[in-house]
Each structure stands twice: as C-alpha cells, then as structure tokens.
Amino acid sequence: MSDKPSIQPPPHRFVVVEGPIGVGKTSLARRLARSFGSELILEQAEENPFLERFYKNPRAGALPTQLFFLFQRTRQLEDIRQHDLFDTVRVADYLLDKDRLFARLTLDDEEFGLYEQIYARLAIDTPVPDLVIYLQAPIDVLLERIARRGIRYEQQIDRGYLERLQEAYARFFHAYDTSPLLIVNAAQADFVSNDRDYEQLFEQVRRVRKGRHYYNPLKSTAD
C-alpha cells in the first residue's frame, strides 16, 4: 500500500471526510493525510465516556454523549483558529455541523432546546473546509463494516438507528452548499487497502475546486 506524501502542492488546505458510522471516513482521512503530508484531526470517539452508555440505552445517554462531543470538537477547532489555518494542510474526519445533526436525531425536544442554548453560547467560529468528501453506502454495508472492525460497544447499534442516521445525512448534504462537495459511493470500493481504488479517488479529490460533484467507482478493482 503506497501512501507517499504528494510531491505537488495540495489543492486544498482543509479537507473534511464525512458520512455515517461504518462508512470508512476515519480510515480515508488517515490515508489522505499521509498523501498530503498533512495534520490529521480526528473526533476521537473512544475518549467519550458516555458513548457506550448511549449505545446501551440511547434515551439515558444521549444528552451527555452529545455535549461531550460538542465540547471536544469545539476545543479542537478553536485550536485550529489559534494557529494560521493556511500554515499547514489539515484533514479531519468530521464536520462540526454534523454535531447538530446527531443532536436532533438523538435528543428529545427539551434536551435539544438545552443543547441549542449551549451551542449558541459557545459562539463557535469554525474554519470553513476547502472540500468536504461525503461517503455513502447502503445499510447492509455499514452493518457489515461495523461488525468487521469489532469495536465492542458499536455492536449494539441497531439497523433502525443507522437508517435514521443515513436519512439525516442525506437531507443535510442535499442542502449543503458551504464548501465544495464530493459525494462518493463507498459501497464497493476499498479506499484503504486497495491502491488503485484509492488513487482514482485521490485524483478526484485533487480535481474538485468548487461546486457539487459525484464519484461512483461502481465496484472495487481488487482481485
């Protein structure tokens, strides 16, 4: 697997990879960061002490889980703001806007009202990505990948939750126009361990400068 840093100047200074649980956003973000020789920003879900509680009992664990992620992500993005965003290339595996997407999905109306008050008080000034890569895959593929990677608490994720999450992502990105957007069918390609699949996607990433684009590799080129 070849991950040599690009010898050409990267076309983007801040790239975000997004998509539902299990779609492969963190793995792709890691490989893009190696190719660009860039800083990697991860949401570090394993640091959230409430996440396992949420998957066991969503109603009991939703609010503390969501607030922990909000504070964690805000702190990371504030650190970027304190440095020159253009001083280095950065690749992240989350878009802060998705925090509210998860909050609306998991919180009841009263909890979401409290979340919105806290969100507003934080007065978050987030850097705008030069490119957002939105990975899509069917529910069966997401469930298979979640099972394969074997994170214990994720095995409790049910199909209904993933379906609601996937629909929320689709609605969000249908209206998204803040940054150039590359929508990728990640169902059958292997961008992590198959060099040809990855290189073809990487070429698409380098080409996008503005607007909305779709990339459908159809199926993995792996033997």
TrEMBL record:
CDD domains: dNK (cd01673)
UniProt GO molecular function: ATP binding; deoxynucleoside kinase activity
Organism, as annotated: Povalibacter uvarum
Active site: 93
GO CC aspect terms: cytoplasm
Gene3D superfamilies in UniProt: P-loop containing nucleotide triphosphate hydrolases
Chain ranges of the Deoxynucleoside kinase domain: 16-207
Protein name: Deoxyadenosine/deoxycytidine kinase
Binding annotation for ATP: 19-27, 145-149
